[in-house]
Amino acid sequence: MFENLSSKLDKAFQTLKGQSKLTELNIAETVKEIRRALVDADVSYKIAKDFTNRIKDKALGGDVLTSVSPGQLMTKIVNDELVELLGGETQPIDLSGNPSVILIAGLQGSGKTTFSGKLVKHLKSKGRNPLLVACDVYRPAAINQIKVLGEQVGVSVFANEDLKDPLAIAKDAIKHAKANNYNVVVVDTAGRLSVDEVMMNEIGNLKSALNPQEILFVVDAMTGQDAVNTAKVFNDKLDFDGVVLTKLDGDTKGGAAISIKAIVNKPIKFVSTGEKMEALDVFHPDRMASRILGMGDIVSFVERAQDTFDKDEAAKLQKKMRKNQFDFDDFLKQLAQIKKMGNIKDLMGMIPGVGKAIKDVDIDDDSFKGIEAIIHSMTSEERQSPQILDGSRKQRIAKGSGTSTTEVNKLVKQFDEMKKMMKQMNSSKGTRAGKMPFKR
Amino acid sequence: MGLLDFFKKKPTTEQKEKLDEGLEKTRSSFINKISKVVVGKSTIDENFLDDLEEILISSDVGVDTTVKIIDRIEARVSKDKYLGETELNTMLKEEIIGLLSENESPIHNQETKPYVIMVVGVNGVGKTTTIGKLSHMFKQQGLKVVIGAADTFRAAAVDQIKIWGDRVGVEVVAKGMNTDPAAVAFEAVKYGSEVEADVVIIDTAGRLHNKVNLMNELSKIKRVMDKQVDGAPHEVLLVLDASTGQNAFEQAKQFTASTEVSALALTKLDGTAKGGVVIGISDQFNIPVKYIGVGEQMNDLQIFDGKNFVNSLFS
Fold it and tell me: pLDDT-based confidence at A310, cuts 50/70/90?
């Protein structure tokens, strides 16, 4: 029932399948589905409405391209609009000051402190000499938290537990930075609600006193319809320079990103994808749009793959896949390659068309063990020609791998489906990825 | 004086005021919108239902639940019938309360001691703060509370819960950072039994519900407690952030799958977030909302009352 945006959009485009051209009627239907999909992904109701109205106009007014199907045309229109909405070029942060001051703001629990830790680590790796400043004087142990993070990433932390005045602390910190040659000062602040006037004034005062080069608004990617209200109030107060989207490693589609971008028109500068200090990425609007549309984040996937994949092996594998000669030996090799790349489910999600097929599937990193055991228990003949697997062979394999014939059957069946899928992908080359054979 | 008495206790006037205060923003916008919808309309027509849809969806109620509410209203009135603002408000309220109260399960009558509560949720929803406030609430009732600091992962999480422990005067069982959370939970429940505590509350590290390994860890933490006290944990409290959108459904689903969530706490209702997500979750899962958080002070936790909640939205 709770499908993500990609699969919802897929469903929307499904309406257009088999239709030979875009008409007012089928556009209206698709647009309604797209709107629903966007709203389900937490895009603000109003923004989703505006967005789909633009799509409708474009679709109706667009040139009729006879070479593409209505579904493909619609996908392209939506994708282009999404990319435009999410912002064109990736924008770097302003580090021109000496020291440059970066002010971090956001609601409680949005992930400001964790992000601050990641940011100073990132800056340090870029050759900067950052100072992390603890200005959350309210939440219990917030200062300890930042000290621990500072230690983890090897960056100095400026804190004053006896002082309950964030402004005084920040001013001291900048003096300290100047005297000790720190060239970037990252000021972490307490979480605050947009309706809390006292706290909003506090951060307003921090801004006017510190005159930061960069103000970053940190927002939880899982935020719902309220994202527009909060972002607007923070922006009115601070006129921030960029947005940081956190917890994007969850299964939220991050519709809040679209809402915020549309309402305050500020670029998303970083996305945060995990609790480890390395899990910080620069935001790529085009990739995000593709991901939302279910076209897969193929660029990131390829980048990651390039880092780990053995090129020759990959080329060989591809050739075999094209000729439909993919066998269990190749499968085993592929598993080993994939395992080298990291978290399996995240990776699979980047592959076009695969994300939706596995969205409800729990993929444990150990889940390949059983499969590997089964394949290892096959003879090389069996691996190369799986069709010879009969009852007694399967029984032997089950015994050898410590599994059951049911599991062996399941793997063989999955393998067959995979081969079918590859065949489909080959035949539908150049268009959107082939349909996945998944349940229901 | 037992747990039962505590749970039965009605919210004081002061608490009601706080809730009203916290919900003021929510309510005014909700009412404004409803009135705007009603003014100048003599019948329920398609446009009206469209507007209603917008109101509900903008409050994070979610598409499915919104459709359900609209269907129910449609079913109750023939479309051409005149409906005044009051009638409409009443009807909406009834339908929403209906969705909420269908799930209103009775509070457990606990005879075993200690009553063990395990607190779970994604990162940053306010688990630790909720535990601090919850401990204070129980303590005010004269109950003996022990906290288990099983968030051993996030930097300084143990310090944070210890400060809360000191603040409300409750003992905290901790083994430090990066220790085995299941072992901490086990120790805390064990210690709770030894000192004859009435309630043991176990804090856990925030985790995203799509991380299989972390969710398995949570199942393990839950399992070990049963070895110490029969049936523990007696309550698994999932903490949800009111500003979270439709992803809250997925959270409820996944946390229920790994820990059999039995109650919900909704935090940060003092902001502009509408909390409509509760209606949807209450409707789709059979899990009652027990507590709401309306601020960062130790008194800012209240027992959720469906009728009060919806009334506050519409009053």
Answer: low
CATH 1.10.260.30 placement within chain A: 298-427
List CB contacts (< 8 A) between B210 and chain A: 249-251, 345
CATH number for B142: 3.40.50.300
What is the token pair recorded at A32? 């309604």
Residue B73: inside a domain: no
User: Over 80: is that where the pLDDT of B10 sits?
Assistant: no
| Number of Cβ atoms within 10 Å of the Cβ of B106 | 7
Q: What is the pLDDT of residue B285?
A: 87
The verdict on domain A5-86 having CATH code 1.20.120.140 is: yes
CA distance A258 to B188: 44
User: In Å, how far is A220's CA from the nearest CA of chain B?
Assistant: 8
Q: What is the DSSP letter of B117?
A: E
DSSP letter for each residue of A9-33? HHHHHHTTTT--S--HHHHHHHHHH
Determine the topology of domain A100-284 in CATH: Rossmann fold (3.40.50)
Q: How far away is chain A from the Cα of B110, in angstroms, using its nearest Cα?
A: 32
Work out how many domains chain B is built from and give that number: 1
Interface size A-B, in CB pairs within 8 Å, comes to 160
Across the strands, what pairs with A105? Answer: A217
Q: Is A401 an interface residue toward B (CB < 8 Å)?
A: no
Residue B314 lies in a domain: no
Flag whether residue B298 sits within 8 Å of chain A, measured between CB atoms. no
Residues of B whose CB is below 8 A from A115? none
Q: What is the DSSP letter of A365?
A: G
Contact status, residue A125 vs residue A136, Cβ threshold 8 Å: no
Bigger pLDDT: A132 vs B79:
A132
Model confidence over B149-187: pLDDT tens digits?
999 998 899 999 999 999 999 999 999 999 999 999 999
Cβ atoms within 10 Å of A144's Cβ, excluding its own? 19
CATH topology of domain A298-427: 434 Repressor (Amino-terminal Domain) (1.10.260)
Residue ranges of chain A that CATH labels 3.40.50.300: 100-284
- Full strand arrangement of the beta sheet holding B145-150: B171-173, B145-150, B199-204, B115-120, B235-241, B263-267, B289-293, B301-303
Q: Strand locations in B93-144, DSSP E?
A: 115-120
* Cα dist from A13 to A71, A348, A349, whole Å: 5, 22, 20
3-state class of B42 per DSSP?
coil
Is the CB of residue A250 less than 8 Å away from at least one CB of chain B? yes
Could you tell me the pLDDT band of residue A344, with boundaries at 50, 70 and 90? low
Which of A39, A226, A251 best tests the B interface by mutation, with the highest count of B CBs <10 A? Answer: A226
What does the pLDDT look like over A107-155, one tens digit per residue?
A: 999 999 999 999 999 999 999 999 999 999 999 999 999 999 999 999 9
* Nearest neighbour of A224 by CB, restricted to B208, B244, B253: B244
Averaged pLDDT for residues A94-109: 94
Nearest to A108 among B126, B247, B274 (CB): B126
**Which H or E run includes A339?**
helix A328-341
**Cis omega (within 30 of 0) on the bond before B106?**
no
pLDDT bin (cut points 50, 70, 90) of residue B61 is confident
Residue of A nearest to B154 (CA): A145
| CATH 1.20.120.140 domain range(s) in chain A | 5-86
